[in-house]
Amino acid sequence: MHDSSEMAFVNVSKEINDQPSVRLSVKDEVLLNAHATTNVTCTANSLLANIVWSVYGDTQLIVCNKSQECEINIFPLDTNEHRNYTCTAYFESGNYSLSTSSSFVAVGRASTRCKDKAIEGIAVGLSVFIAVVIISMAIVFARKRKVESGSGF
Predict the structure, then answer these.
(1) Which of 64, 73, 87, 140 could form a disulfide with 42 if both were Cys (CB 3.0 to 4.6 A apart)?
(2) Which residues make beta-bridge pairs with 42?
(3) Which residues are listed as membrane-spanning (predicted)?
């Protein structure tokens, strides 16, 4: 560990003057359907780094030591839930330590699969109802015809 008088922390979000940076495999926002999961990768663009994934800025989830990539699995969210994930890479270079971070928000939304299944169920139920009505009408007309012709059923 370095003496604190020798440490300097610099937050950078883009590579400027060959400063290390990180990039995420997603944009600023990730929309997740109910019960869905996804993986997000944080990549350090130059040196090996100690990469730390955290949620809500303070709860560490994963630490990848001396790595260039670190992947996190985003678990299902409740509908309208928002989680802020941050990837921070800590680089050591000579007497200095540099850190850079990037964040995204995971947003839970209602599953379209549930809506599709409900619509599918309604369509099947309606089809069965229509089939029963048609078959019933056919039976009624057949009986009526037999009764009119005098042959009975």
Answers:
(1) 87
(2) 24, 70
(3) 121-142
Q: How far apart are CA 72 and CA 121, in angstroms?
A: 36
Cα 35 to chain centroid, rounded = 9
- Report pTM: 0.59
48-56 mean pLDDT: 92
Q: What is the CA radius of gyration of the chain?
A: 31
User: How many domains is the chain partitioned into structurally?
Assistant: 2
**Torsion, Cα of 16, 21, 23, 28 (10° steps):** -70
Beta carbons of 9 and 99 less than 8 angstroms apart: yes
For the segment 51-64, the average pLDDT, to the nearest whole number, is: 91
What would the DSSP string read from start to end of 102-136?
EEEEEEEE--HHHHHHHHHHHHHHHHHHHHHHHHH
Same domain, 131 and 146: yes
CA torsion angle 41 46 50 53 (round to 10): -30
Strands 22-24 and 38-44: antiparallel
